Amino acid sequence: MFYSNFCHLYLEMQKRELGKQGGGSGGSGTPAAKRGRPVGSTASNLAAAALAEAAAPSTLLGPSLQIHSSFADQNTKRIVHALQSGLKSELTWALNALTLLSFKEKDDVRKDATPLAKIPGLLDALLQVIDDWRDIALPKELVKTPRTRSLGVNAIVTGFGNDIPHTNIGSGSVSEVSLQKKATKAHPSEWWLAEDGLFNLDDEGRAEKQLCAVAASNVLRNFSFMPENEVIMVQHRHCLETIFQCMEDHATEDEELVTNCLETIVNLAPMLDLRIFSSSKPSYIKITEKRAVQAILGILGSSIKAWHCAAAELLGRVIINPDNEPFLLPSASQIYKRLVDLLSLPAVDAQAAAVGALYNLAEVNMDCRLKLASERWAVDRLLKVIKTPHPVPEVCRKAAMILESLVSEPQNRPVLLAYENAFAEILFSDGKFSDTFARILFELTSKPNSKVATARGIWGM
């Protein structure tokens, strides 16, 4: 009895002492102000903070928490094996640890960055986590069991029979199911991989796989910000195939997963060579150069601002590599049309992304400049960006440089002459771009076949 009373008294004294340290009569101290949202996703940061809670004092918790780089050296094999194991606890530990290893504050230069080369097999293990989710991404309730068409089986002229199988798919189906010509009885050995087989995941299991895939994509995204990892990732065919496949399925895939993949490829774009999809490197998903470009165009046409802005920036970076031109230029008209549409949006970041992409595309060749000048509203909207003006001066400068590139082609001058008054207005009203528009007007009026003699007299030619 005495011992229990003593313990109770001791606990009460401890509580009071903690209350005094917390700032007075039992009140807790004011928590430190939260810092800005870091590069990592919110969900991953919360999970990472939970991982470190047991190993670090509470004063160290928060977005600024980082694992020392020696952690990766000491646990390389364990991290990779944990990812490969598929066990929930091991997988969670590895993803949380990698989230902290790849963590980066805004405007923070990581001197202790963790290159992927330090952890052999890590990139493949992360991609396997994403592939595990991709393999079961289609919800099973949207796919009905196929059955053979029975209508017209015995008829000669209908053409049904065994040639065209019948699919009994509900109105909520999101994809076509490839069917066999004849219904065959399932063999017991096929139960392992059957949709409703022995090892099929329930809804909770699917949700866990999805969260793990998103966390793995977030780690890849964070690693892509580190210059040490760019070469490894951009030369890894499986990595690029997984990224482009997620972008290709952006309409049905998890939005955060698509966003992470998109931001990853934007970071890698300056070094991206689309010819890797036809190289001798082993392929896992069979993505071709054409499919990769179509995936970018699909994102570019999205209504989500973050996506089409990133896709425009991606196009502007990919076209810098001359080896990518043969794959992008066949879709130039479609690209120009969408980029000009983005110029009309009120969002300044969409305008900046579109101008940046058009600036690089206009420098490719004469055909690009001719197609851009012939695109309806292109010149009007470029002028609007300059006149408004855009809050970023560099965007206005690039818009003016695009117009100068267009006027360098003689075939474009009849189109641009209609905007001569607008060019002259900017020349005399805006000193920042007076030199550029003076050169534009000189090009328009200096050629014998470009303008009538009265205009030559006005501009002193």
Automatic annotation (TrEMBL):
It comes from the Eukaryota. InterPro entries: ARM-like, ARM-type_fold, BAF250/Osa. Residues 19-39 are annotated as: Disordered. Residues 20-29 have a biased composition (Gly residues). GO terms for cellular component: brahma complex; nucleoplasm; SWI/SNF complex. GO terms for biological process: chromatin remodeling; positive regulation of DNA-templated transcription; regulation of transcription by RNA polymerase II. This is Putative ARM repeat superfamily protein. It comes from Helianthus annuus (Common sunflower).
